[in-house]
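Contributing new records

If you add data, match the layout below exactly. Sequence lines come first and carry their own label; structure lines follow with theirs. Keep one chain per record. Anything else will be rejected by the validation script.
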Amino acid sequence: MLSGVYTGVKKDGTLYFRSSVTYRSKHISLGSFETEKEAHRAYKEAKKILSNKKIEIGDCKNKVLDFKKYVILINFRDNGMYMKTPIYLKEKYFYYYFAPDDYLIFDSDDIFYFSDHSIMRRGGHLFVADFGMQVNILSRYGIKNFAVKQRDYRFINGDETDYRRANLEIINRYHGVIRKENKTASGYVYEARIHINGDFIVGRYDTEVKAAIAYNKAAAILKEKGIKKEFPENYIEEYDSEKYKAIYEKIKISKKIINYK
C-alpha cells in the first residue's frame, strides 16, 4: 500500500481508499478516494503544503485535495490551529473561504463559533446548522430575519463580505419600524407600519422603541377585530413590564387602525 493510504469498505461491499497525514502530532484525515493512486496523490499534496510556506490558498487549482481541506492545512501550517472549517486566521480577524477568490471576513471573537459551524448559502442568504435548525448568520449581530439590506442594516465600508462588527450598522432593529430623516428637525423619526392588505402607517415616533410598541399595539387591535394574520411581536428588552405597559397604554396610533373594519 502506498504511503498515507488506507483501505475501507462501503456498506455495499465496495472497496475505497482513505488518505491521511500526520503533522505536529495531529492525525489529519484527507478524505476518501476511488483509487489508491488518487489517495496517495492527496497525501503527497498535503505533505507538500505543510512543508512549503510558499504555497498559498490561491494556488489551489486542479488539485486532488478538496479546497476546504486545502485551506485547513494552510491555516494549520501558518497559525498552528487546526479548524474543521475553511478558515484562515489573521491578527484580529479571519477569512472564511468558499473558493480562492470567494470569502467572508469576521472578527476574531467569532472564531470558535465558525470553526464549529459550516456556512451554507441558499438564495443569497448565509446559514449555519445550529441545534437542528438553519440559522441566518446575521442573527449573531442582532439583525432580524425580516431585515432588508440598506433599509434595516448596512455594511459601512460597502464591502458585503465584511462581517466584522465595526462594519455592520443596524438601522432598524424592530419589525414594522423604519428610521427616516426628520425633515422638520435634526435627527430621525421612527415610522411604524403594519401590513394588512397593503401597508398602513401606524404612526411616527421620536424613538424606535416607541415605534416598536406602537406596532405591537396595532397588531393587538387588529387581532381583536378578527384579522387572522400572524403579526410578529417586537420584544422590548430596554423596559421592564411596568414601563412597557405605561407606554403601551398612552401611545397613540392611527385612527385608520383603530377604526379598521
